[in-house]
Amino acid sequence: MSSRQYHQLFLMGREPVPMQRRVITFSRNVFLPLTTVCRNRCGYCSFRTPVQAGCVMAPSDVEQVLIRGAQAGCTEALFTFGEHPEEEPGFDACIRATGYATILDYCMAMSRAGIGYGILPHTNAGILTYEEMERLRQVNASMGLMLETTADLPAHKGSKGKSPEVRLAMLEDAGRLKIPFTTGLLLGIGETVADREESLVAIRDVHRRYGHIQEVILQNFCPKPGTVMAAFHVPSTEEICATVRLAREILPKEIAVQIPPNLIDAALLIGCGVDDLGGVSPLTIDYVNPEHPWPAIAELNTIVGDALLRERLCIYPRYIEKGWYHPDLQPLIKRLEQTIKQGSR
Q1: Residue 152 pLDDT exceeds 60
Q2: Which domains does the chain have, with CATH numbers?
């Protein structure tokens, strides 16, 4: 029933059935790119940089962002770094200069710092082994890896970490470890509609085995000047809407369908079946798409329209109830969960 129909029934003196407002969620976060050095050579990427002075974010800079993030009410620290940066010549010396032997050790330490400041870590670092995820699980409430597509595409030439089989295997490992997980598709990098369907089915099937996928991002490709794909076709809003609808048909209801509100006019897509707006930062930029600023938190209410905007943690409520997190994280999760609930009253 539309709001207009509801109002007409009210004016006629009839007792309408109470309207149920859709709920659209988001997470208030800070974005921390620990390094932009990466072994992959994706044709659309401007995030990757070569090994050079300052290619690792200094620990003091990380802590300043965490402190300011906590003061701004952020509940999620999104840690990212290029995939297997140690494979790039010269990077070992850069990471050792921070006082840590590996980028994973550094991420662990900065995650602990985030917890100390009252922010839950979520790491998205490309391909990780079972053992590496098992380590990170101790200090991360959730983790993520974009599947992007199950198709073999020219866009991923020279990027061994973008093998669909390798990425699906990591999703499987995350499920075995009971890690609340985010994945998604990158739309417009040369895949077909059939490829998108196949990718969504693959995600659904992994989730059916393990039940750990909490959200699927449908991210529209944004061309970057100076990249191989700078002049590539950009997916239309109608195309993204059709993919959102497809995702809602294929994926189980408990998996949220997410779109990034800084990359597309999200207000036009809410009605297509979007459930979540992802991490939105009041403090840091989107380092992967720096030319696209985040909407202000206050603007999100306008974007969702008649729906109810609700803040969430990076670990979804059902996984909190199941206890799918390391015991050391329980006090902070419970405290932030209570803070979120009080703020939504």
Answers
A1: yes
A2: 20-343 (3.20.20.70)
